[in-house]
Amino acid sequence: MATNCLQLRIGKEMGRIVTN
Length: 20
Fold this sequence. Notes:
Helices cover 90% and strands 0% of the residues. It has one helix and no strands. The model has no long low-confidence stretch (mean pLDDT 84).
């Protein structure tokens, strides 16, 4: 569960950087 939340947060951050 914790790993899933962390992965989701990392994915969101990466996507945000890519979009920027």
